[in-house]
Structures are given as C-alpha cells and as structure tokens.
Amino acid sequence: MPAARVTSSGPLIARALTGAWRQSPPPFTLSAAQLQQITPLLYSTGAGALVWRRVRKTPLQTLPAAVELQQAYRLQTLRAARGERDIQSVFALLRAAGVEPLLFKGWAAARLYPVEGLRPWGDIDLYVRPPDYARAQTIVQQHAHTLASMVDLYHLDFAALDARDVEELYARSELVALGDVAVRVPGAEDHLRLLCLHWLRHHAWRPLWLCDIAAALEGRGADFAWGLCLSGPERQREWVACALGLASELLGADISALPLATSARALPRWLARTVLKQWSFPIQYHEPDNLPLRTLLRRRAPFLKALRARWPNAIEATYDARGPFTRIPPLPRQLGLYLNRALKFLTKP
Fold first, then answer.
1. In the Cβ-directed half-sphere of 58, how many Cα atoms lie within 13 Å?
2. In terms of C-beta density within 10 A (0-12 exposed, 13-18 middle, 19 or more buried), how is residue 249 classed?
C-alpha cells in the first residue's frame, strides 16, 4: 500500500466514526476504496462494528470490507453475551465475600451504545476499595478457570484517590441491571471524567475510546452535574476539556453545554494531528516501551529500531509531564521523556 494512503487513514477513520454512537448516525460519506483502506485499522482497534452499522444500508454493504466489518459485529455480539455472564458471576462471587466491586470502561461504556455488540470489551475492569483488594484478588484467582474473561483489579486511573475520595466515588455510583444482577458503575460525571483521563493517559491511540467519550457525553441525563465532572485539580479539568474538545473536533460530538466549551474548541493544531497520525499506525504507537534489552535481543529486534520505538508522541509526553496542552511545541517534553526511556533501555539488564 502506498505510504501516502497509509498516512491519510487517520482522517478517514474520524469521518467513518463521526456520530457512529448515535441512535441515528449521519449518512456515510466514504468511498469504497477509502472503506477498504481503513477496514484493517477499524478491525484491529475494535471500531469495526460501529462503522458496519453506518454502511449496512448503503450500496457499500456488499463489499468484502463491509462484510468483514459485519463479521466483527456478529463476533462481538456473541462475545458480549459471554462477557455479561462473567460479569454477573464475578459480582456474585465478590459480594458473597463481602466485597463490593465497581465496574468501569468495558461493559459500563458499551451499555451507552444503542445496540449490543457495537462496542467490544475484553477484560472485566473492576475497582474495589483498597482494604478489599487482596481478598478480591484471591477470589478472582480461585475462580479464574470458570471465567472466559480476564478480571483486572489494578488501575492507575484510581491511584490518586484517598479514603475520602473512594467513599465519595462509591456514594455517587449507580446500580444498573444486568440480567438478575445489579452492577455497580461510576456515576455519569465520574465515568465521563475517567474515560477522558484514561484515553489521554494511553496517549489517545484508540479511536474507539474517543467514541466512548462521545457516547457518554451525549448520553448524559438532564441532571448531569458539570461541576462534579470537572472537579478536582485544575490540570485534570483542562485534560477533560481537551478530550471533549477532540471528541467534538474529530467525531462531531456536541459540546455546546460544556462550561469550558470555548477553551475546548481552541485546541492547539498539533493535538488533532497527533491523534490522527496515531490512528493511522495504532499498533506502532501501542507497542510496549519498557522491554529489557535481553528480551529485545532475543526477539532479534534491531537496536536502533528499538530506540526509535521509544520516541514518545506529543500527547504522551505532555501527559507524562503533567503539563497543559498548549500551542507551545511539546518537543522539549518529548526529548526529555525519550532520553529517560533511552537511558532505562540501555542500562536495564
């Protein structure tokens, strides 16, 4: 595939996913060739089913690329049923031991889409109160063989919470019916904030996660409290507004009610460019950056290629430095993070 076509995939993915989370998505405007170009990227990042829903009643629906996206939707629908059974089982097991889990991302995000199977999930991401962590981990390990899904109990997204924050998070949480089980999920304000911060912490590499943000944003209730969503340190408020601004700029999400809408619309131009570049090469930008030298050599990874792979993108470097997303070029931050990684790479046994 010519290099020029590959580098243009990011904007095409953004167009393909514009409004895809809505009950009535806008008309699909990509050509057959453009759909064919981005289908492997959509499939590999979990966004294929969303685009299938947009093309299924168009002349493109019989194309091989569209059929591949349809298969992704069918597979995700089957896996969703299996995953929901696992969620019910895990909640029952933990509650029987006196542990109350909180589920976020995954099914908590997928339930905001209009049709089951549009949003895939793999692991079951649970948070439990710190005093309950060891007990919950033991229970999960003891019953891992009975579950088809992995259960993840450790998340950096909650690392800064103190005891008071944890209890407030639980107090604001909601119980949502999943079959016969009431699943506890974060309140709408907390969940939207967590989705935004999680996406930026992973340097915005996955377009599906920006769709999650858009779906949570537009699906909020009339009693949604922006003051609560934007609470916390000033830098976090800026990051949340930044993520919502990108959802608007790239996917057409409605941010008219956002108190910080003006600043969210005034994003530096390098920010959207960085996101779209990542979407063109999602696997490259998601490679682990902390493999020791002996592992890389065992895999016969060229030394210089391994060093190049550790060059951080602008979003990653800005987030790592806990800095604002401003018009100032982030090159110094990228260089600082790169040198730190290179030093660790060269000195790790």
1. 18
2. middle
pLDDT on residue 169? 96
Tell me the C-alpha distance between 301 and 27, whole Å: 44
3-state DSSP percent of the chain in helix, strand and coil, to 5: 60, 5, 35
Q: What would the pLDDT profile of 174-229 be if each residue is shown by its tens digit?
A: 999 999 999 999 999 999 999 999 999 998 999 999 999 999 999 999 999 999 99
- CA geometry: angle 9, 14, 18, nearest 5 deg: 150
Tens digit of each residue's pLDDT (9 = 90 or more) over 226-285 = 999 998 889 999 999 999 999 999 999 999 999 999 989 999 999 999 999 999 987 655
> In angstroms, rounded to a whole number, what is the distance separating the alpha carbons of residues 282 and 205?
6
The single residue listed with the structure tokens 């299938």 is 52
* Location of structure tokens 């009431």: 182
HSE-CB of 43 using CA atoms within 13 angstroms: 16
Q: Which helix (H) or strand (E) holds 102?
A: strand 102-103
- CA dist., res. 97 & res. 44, Å (int): 38
Q: Do the beta carbons of residue 246 and residue 267 sit within 8 Å?
A: yes
The pair of three-digit structure tokens given for residue 134, joined into one six-digit string: 């060891």
CA atoms of 13 and 88, how far apart (whole Å): 34
Strand-pairing partners, residue 175, are: 184
In angstroms, the first-to-last Cα distance of the chain is 39
User: What's the whole-model pTM score?
Assistant: 0.90
CA dihedral 323, 208, 258, 263 (to 10 degrees): 40
